[in-house]
Specification:
PIN_8, PIN-like domain-containing protein, 214 residues, mainly alpha, single chain, Rossmann fold, plasmid, 2 domains
């Protein structure tokens, strides 16, 4: 699509915290290009959900490599126990265990290096979030971020979303039980419809999820 407006979902913005350094820079570079940036539009609800969740996503990502290391060490421990239980000859047993020790050290070192290189330091994010700073610059033009709907409109849409989820009418009903605020998808959808109707422009909605809209 070479014309029209591009709207981003919150998961696109939050995914920036999960990407490695190189990919994160590549995505931001694309969004910063004039021919792309000038066509971007952010629904109000998307911005709200990004702001609500960015701290948790960044914190969770800061623990990913530690969790991976713990999981791998657990597997190596299990392998070590099986070798010790199965091989009675002490000399043979030591030969079998030797590569496990090397693997343990190699995995720990590599995961530590990858985490240091690709994860944005959580304490730094709390002081000066580089992703938030980059997004603020990208969505800096007037009317590039949707305005908050009137409270009465929000109340009506939230009530409607609850009815739709009971009747299993998309969007959002498939994961409505897994979210604290399941109305978010429907509120975004309403904003997209309003924007498309008001602007008269083609509108592309970009998300990382597979969603049912109709």
């Amino acid at each position: 699509m070479t014309e029209g407006t591009i709207a981003l979902d919150a998961n696109i913005l939050l995914h920036l915290y999960r990407l490695g350094e190189h990919q994160r820079k590549e995505v931001l570079a694309v969004l910063t290009k004039d021919e792309v940036r000038s066509r971007l539009w952010l629904p109000y609800q998307v911005g709200l959900e990004y702001q609500r969740n960015r701290d948790k996503v960044a914190y969770d990502q800061s623990k990913v490599y530690d969790a991976l290391d713990a999981a791998v060490q657990g597997l190596l421990n299990t392998a070590e126990e099986k070798i010790k239980a199965a091989i009675r000859d002490a000399n043979v047993r030591e030969e079998a265990l030797e590569p496990l020790a090397a693997a343990r050290e190699a995995v720990q070192q590599r995961l530590k290096e990858l985490g240091a290189r690709h994860v944005i330091d959580y304490s730094a994010i709390q002081r000066h979030d580089p992703v938030r700073v980059a997004l603020d610059a990208i969505f800096s033009d007037a009317n590039q971020v949707g305005t908050k709907p009137e409270q009465q409109t929000l109340n009506e849409r939230i009530a409607e979303s609850k009815k739709r989820y009971i009747d299993e009418v998309p969007p959002g009903y498939l994961d409505s039980k897994d979210k604290d605020r399941p109305e978010g998808d429907y509120l975004i959808w309403c904003e997209l419809l309003d924007f498309a109707a008001d602007s008269g422009r083609a509108l592309l909605f970009v998300t990382t999820l597979s969603v049912n809209l109709v």
